[in-house]
Write a structure and sequence with these properties.
- By secondary structure, this protein is α+β, with helices and mostly antiparallel strands.
- The protein has one domain: TBP-like, CATH 3.30.2030.
- The chain has a six-stranded antiparallel β-sheet with strand order 1-2-6-5-4-3, covered by helices on one side.
- A hairpin with a 6-residue loop joins strand 3 and strand 4.
Length: 145
């Protein structure tokens, strides 16, 4: 069994927010983005069972306006920016027959993952930042107080 790193929820959120804001800054330097969901969620086990020991991951979800004609160039810009930053690009794909697609990366140093995908219709991109699973310090379950 893998030993999980221990991290307070607030610290994990700050790291996810930093990655989100950096990515939003690349996508849209004016920084206009709508946060649609943020916070901890329980980790799942190998068979889809929900952890009951307090282990959690952070998810930050945003919608960033991007015009239809800038969708692919934005995804390619993210890919090259992430590669220069040393991130492992997991995929870059274009949706068949559309000016839309998806790019995803993992940050090797800490295991956070980023995914940016065109919305339908492609008037924006959705940005998701996910942390790896962490154990809360001192056994404090973030879902039970």
């Amino acid at each position: 069994m893998q030993t999980l790193r221990t991290m307070p929820v607030d610290e994990a959120k700050r790291i996810a927010d930093r990655y989100a804001q950096e990515t939003i800054g690349i996508i849209r330097p004016t920084g206009a983005a709508e946060n649609t969901d943020s916070g901890p969620a329980p980790c799942e086990g190998q068979h889809g069972e929900v952890a009951e020991d307090g282990r959690y991951y952070i998810q930050h979800l945003y919608v960033v306006p991007v015009s239809r004609d800038r969708q692919i160039s934005t995804l390619e810009l993210l890919q090259s920016s992430w590669e220069r930053a040393g991130y492992e690009v997991l995929r870059l794909r274009r949706f068949q027959g559309e000016e839309a697609g998806e790019v995803a990366a993992r940050i090797p140093g800490d295991g956070y993952q980023l995914s940016v995908e065109s919305t339908s219709p492609p008037t924006a991109v959705s940005l998701a930042v996910y942390s790896p699973c962490f154990m809360p310090p001192d056994g404090v379950d973030p879902f039970r107080g």
